[in-house]
Amino acid sequence: NAESLPQAIKMVNNREVQVAYKVKTTAPEHYRVKPTVGIIEPGQECEVSVQLTPGSAVTASRDRFLVQCTEITSPFKGDITEYWRSVEQGKVTEHRLRCKVVMNGSPIEEKVDHLMSNSMHIAQPPNVADRLLAIENKLKSLEQKAEATHRQTRNTLVIIQIFLAVSLVYISYLLYQEYNLLQESIATDEPAVQSVPNQEL
């Protein structure tokens, strides 16, 4: 977690005009970059200080820097930040840089891989592979049982639906028969209508 030593991006202007530069990074929270913009006079050089923040060394190998440069055709002494806002993209030259963190003469990625390898070797018991295989087999067995239960449940639901459909048809038939019997009973119980002849007094 200690702070790293500042490093420098060195730039040389071999042109006959001023050159404006801008330095960007994919992880600005991991680095202190000073200055991020500036002007290099013809035939001069400059250095941009780059310092890694504490705790960022492990992932620094994935970070990138982008150095953008553009020529200034006429002498410029204004605000270089404002100047960059008006620069056309087609007049900008870009240089991409990869990060490499070194600790005690070796890339930090090698040290991290070595530590992880030792840690895994110490932490794993001799029979860990057998245990993992047993767990995998148990999971497969549970999966097969779950599939069988699902199929059985689906078949049961189909049988229940068929039973309900048949029961509904049968009940409808019984109600129809009951209705016919009721109609016949009503027709039988109705008294016959007799006509009474008129008697003359």
Summarize model confidence as the mean pLDDT. 82
Uncertain regions spanning at least 5 consecutive residues:
119-124
How far apart the termini lie comes to 137 Å
Question: Count the helices. How many?
Answer: 3
Task: Write up what this structure looks like.
It is a single chain. With 201 residues, the protein is α+β, with helices and mostly antiparallel strands. Helices cover 42% and strands 24% of the residues. The chain contains 3 helices and 9 strands. The strands form 3 sheets. A 4-stranded antiparallel beta sheet has the order 4-2-6-7. A 3-stranded antiparallel beta sheet has the order 1-5-3, with no helix packed on it. A hairpin with a 2-residue loop joins strand 8 (102-103) and strand 9. The radius of gyration is 45 Å and the shape is elongated. It starts with 6 loop residues before the first strand and ends in a 12-residue tail after the last helix. Mean pLDDT is 82; it is low at 119-124.
